[in-house]
Amino acid sequence: MESPPPGRPSDLMFLLSWASHALRAEHAAGLAELGISPRAYGVLLRARGGDLTQRQIGELCGVDKTTMVVTLDQLEANGLARRVPAPSDRRARLVEVTPQGERVLDQARQVAARLETDVLATLPEAEREVFLRAIRRLVDERLSGAHTSGVAGSVC
């Protein structure tokens, strides 16, 4: 393996962190043009089916209860989502995406797809699928969270 350029160590944690930070920044910039944040995008994406409670969506996104409430307040204020009582538990609220939210979500998915295409275009075509399979395997297996000590961050 070649020596890393100065200022860019070759350790896995640094590389994954750097890549994540750069992707999040580009994603956030693209979504900002639609008036939403990456967290709002993640919430809308998971709420699309209309059958999850705000608590379930928060857990899927790794978002605490307070942050989830603030995010949903913003989505509702912008007409992108609404909370409705769950039929099986009046205390729980299902999150539904509004028609306007569906349009924004479709545009946001296009932003994400363009970013993915652009980033992967950096790799030779033969390496793209190998890279995606490898990173998926790491995330699904060793980096699934099963090996952590309860330290979690927002994934939305």
β-strand percent reads 5-15%
| Series of secondary-structure elements, N-terminal to C-terminal | HHHHEEHH
Q: In whole angstroms, how far apart are the ends? A: 34 Å
- Unreliable segments of 5+ consecutive residues: none
Helix content: 55-70%
Rg over C-alpha atoms, rounded to the nearest angstrom: 18 Å
Q: What is the strand arrangement across the widest sheet?
A: 1-2
Largest sheet: 2 strands, antiparallel
State mean pLDDT (0 to 100 scale). 89
The helix tally amounts to 6
What global shape is seen?
globular
The count of DSSP E runs of length 2 or more, i.e. the number of strands, is 2
Helix and strand content put the structural class at mainly alpha
Tell me the layout of helices and strands.
Elements: H1 12-32, H2 38-47, H3 54-61, H4 65-77, E1 81-86, E2 89-97, H5 99-120, H6 125-140
Antiparallel strand pairs: 1-2
Helix pairs in contact: 1-5, 2-3, 3-4
Describe the structure.
With 156 residues, the protein is mainly α. It is built from 6 helices and 2 strands, in the order ααααββαα. It has helices spanning 12-32, 38-47, 54-61, 65-77, 99-120, 125-140, and strands spanning 81-86, 89-97. A two-stranded antiparallel ribbon has the order 1-2. A hairpin with a 2-residue loop joins β1 (81-86) and β2. α1 packs across α5 (99-120), α2 (38-47) crosses α3 (54-61) and α3 (54-61) crosses α4. The mean pLDDT is 89.
Give a quick precis of the structure.
This protein is mainly α.
Observed structural traits:
156 residues, mainly alpha, two-stranded antiparallel sheet, 2 strands, 58% helix
